[in-house]
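Reviewer 2 asked us to include a model.

Predict the structure of this chain.
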Amino acid sequence: MTKLSPAELSRYSRHLILPEIGPCGQRKLKNSKVLCVGSGGLGSPIAMYLAAAGVGTLGIIDDDVVSENNLQRQIIHSTRSIKRRKVESAKERLEDLNPHIQVRPLAVRLNASNALDIFKDYDVIVDGTDNFGVRYLINDACVLLGKPDVYGGVLRTEGQASVFHYKGGPCLRCLCPEPPKPGEVMTCTEGGILNVLPGIIGCIQANETIKIILGKGETLANRLLILDAWKMKFREITLQKDPMCPVCGTKPTIKKLKETAAFCAAQAVPLITAAGLKRLLKKEPAALQMIDVREPKETAAGMIPGAVNIPLGKIAARKSKLNPAKPIIFICQSGVRSETAVRELTAAGFTAAMSSLKGGMNTWK
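Predicted model (structure tokens):
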């Protein structure tokens, strides 16, 4: 085990006097390898606290670039980082925070063909993503490789954390065997997010990672921790390993990673821009049908004049209310649910010309 240098002994002095860590534990941290999937809202505090703690090798995987609206919560990046690759921005910040660690930036999209090869070199995988398909991919890869999956999720003012597949404990599929279909669950783009929430959940994930590396303390394995940050209340759900789990059960059916509809981009949907819709409304407003598929509590904040509200969950049942002879423009907050409405009606045999407002009400405003 690699020894600590005099500079490291000084830097980590507050750890060294803790009986739970001490010199031996700090050497374990230095010799550990952790992969953080994502360098956004969750990935920022995860990576920064693990780097500050002295995790020797820290991998960061993210194929995205920094945008201005990231900076409300993604504190690892700065205004100067806008339009830069997130992994490059994160590497620069982490090396400035702690020059004694090695940061491995991976500017690639995680998928079924590369996940196992990337994960195999790390001791712990920390899920800092915001995509259900990728979360299940991470879970399955961790189970197949025997790695712990430190999970976190945030939306609006609520967050949750757990440790999956640790010491024989349950995995994500024991909790929910299949990911939700595209459009079934609101995203942060649609629902918004309290900026401090990823910081709280990300710190919990970093804490769990440190305990796993040290082999000490009580982890969140077998537990799902849920936080309502607005009420500042925590609650726990006890998790049980499912013997019929398709990936970690006694007779697993998932024995290798593969792309599924939940992981891949869904079939392309015709899109119309806000500018294009404005032109059509100015030219022939009566020739269009505009259907807003948001929930009533969302439309209360305002709708495009002339639009009719039919929530996404009721679209299929109320398709008889739509005129197949008129083009239909579907609208939601960010464009995700409106695309789902087009796909659902197409699959149900509805033959009208249908398109989705690109970017939804976010771009219309």
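The chain has two domains: 32-238, 271-364. The domain at 32-238 is CATH 3.40.50.720 (Rossmann fold). We have added this to the supplementary material.
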